[in-house]
Write a structure and sequence with these properties.
Helix content is 33%, strand content 23%. Helix 3 crosses helix 4 and helix 7 packs across helix 8. It is an alpha/beta fold. The chain starts with a strand and ends with a helix. The chain contains eleven helices and 13 strands.
Length: 357
């Protein structure tokens, strides 16, 4: 029997940091208002395209695995904010790392990375592939209406990646569950797409909007339900879960989820304060941070869950391997950013603030 193990991991977070105090310079909010409701203190704003974030994360994951890009035989990029819809940005990453293989994007919003992890592990277990690169990358600042406090304070940019490799040793991705709640597809959405009237300039006025209360309720239900389902599928009790890496959407959601599942809070990893919600990138970035901080340890049973627009939801159970340090240290990085985060978003802020008057 073949197993799919995570052997490499890497992240890319843009250098420009937008703090809660920065947001308070142009909208009615405060650091206290944002932190008490979301747990977020700051987020990153990218000066480059999503494919560049994805490439750096991928290169660092390859270094951690000690392999070359040419060895990868499948690339899956989870993103709702690609540089281009045609072609996919997986092809850009592929060219940048020197791979020769299948490559495609998937859009399951914030659940995208776990969708990709599940698909990648299945491809390995089926014998189709041996080394799969799974990336979650987002530039959600592109979608934000900075006059809408309910969404403008939540999101950030970044990318994370893992390498999955075939092994005959039990462990790795033990199981996964995917679901979607189409009845709620309109409570978290953006109007960007081919339904836009390309001949009407007002169609460019697209942005993320959400129904916060409904998202909160359905997120708890979706993540909790699939987490229970994947544990039952793998015949593992929740008491045997050593570590939980949930999607970083809102600290209140994480706290409520963990409480209802009756899992000790200290088992849950939370890093939303530093990055905000980076959608498909939150879980792989959290994996990297947890390893760097020594909180994710060798041999642990790790539960991960997510929800996103659609409303998608996903859960995966992973038995971590023996290695928690990279074979080669991460060296890939973005080009320097010569301006502040406030300067990066100023054109969008000016546009939306003037429109709202």
């Amino acid at each position: 029997m073949q197993y799919a193990h995570i052997t490499g991991w890497g992240k890319c977070v843009p250098p420009a940091t937008l703090t809660n105090d920065d947001l308070a310079t142009f909208m009615e909010t405060s650091d206290e208002w944002i932190k008490t409701r979301t747990g977020i203190s700051e987020r990153r704003i990218s000066h480059v395209n999503t494919s560049e974030l994805a490439t750096v994360a991928a290169q660092n994951a390859l270094s951690a695995a000690g392999i070359d890009g040419s060895e990868i035989d499948l690339i899956i990029v989870a993103t709702a904010s690609p540089d281009t819809l045609i072609p996919n940005i997986a092809s850009t990453v592929q060219a940048n790392i020197g791979a020769s293989c299948g490559a495609f994007d998937i859009n399951a919003a914030c659940s995208g990375f776990l969708y990709g992890l599940g698909l990648g592990s299945s491809m390995i277990k089926s014998g189709q592939n041996k080394k799969v690169l799974v990336i979650g990358a987002e530039r959600l600042s592109f979608y934000l209406d900075w006059s809408r406090r309910e969404t403008a304070v939540l999101f950030g940019d970044g990318a994370g990646a893992v390498v999955l490799e075939v092994s005959d040793q039990p462990g790795g991705v033990l199981g996964y569950e995917l679901n979607n709640d189409p009845a709620a597809r309109d409570i978290l959405a953006s109007g960007f797409g081919t339904k836009m009237d390309r001949f009407d300039s007002s169609s460019l006025d697209f942005f993320i909007h959400l129904n916060g209360q409904e998202v909160f309720k359905r997120a708890i239900h979706g993540m909790g339900g699939l987490s229970t389902k994947v544990l039952e599928k793998c015949n593992i009790n929740k008491e045997d879960v050593d570590f939980v890496i949930p999607h970083q959407a809102n600290e209140r959601i994480i706290d409520t989820l963990i409480s209802r599942m009756k899992i000790p809070k200290e088992k849950a990893f939370v890093n939303i304060a530093k990055y905000g919600n980076t959608s498909a990138a939150t879980i792989p970035i959290a994996i990297c941070d947890a390893l760097e901080q020594g909180k994710l340890k060798a041999g642990q049973t790790v539960l991960s869950c997510a929800f996103g627009a659609g409303l998608t939801s996903a859960a995966a159970l992973v038995k971590w391997g023996e290695r928690t340090t990279p074979i080669n240290p991460p060296t890939a990085e973005l080009p320097p950013c010569e301006v502040t985060a406030l300067e990066l978003i100023k054109p969008a802020v000016d546009f939306f603030m003037n429109k709202s008057k």
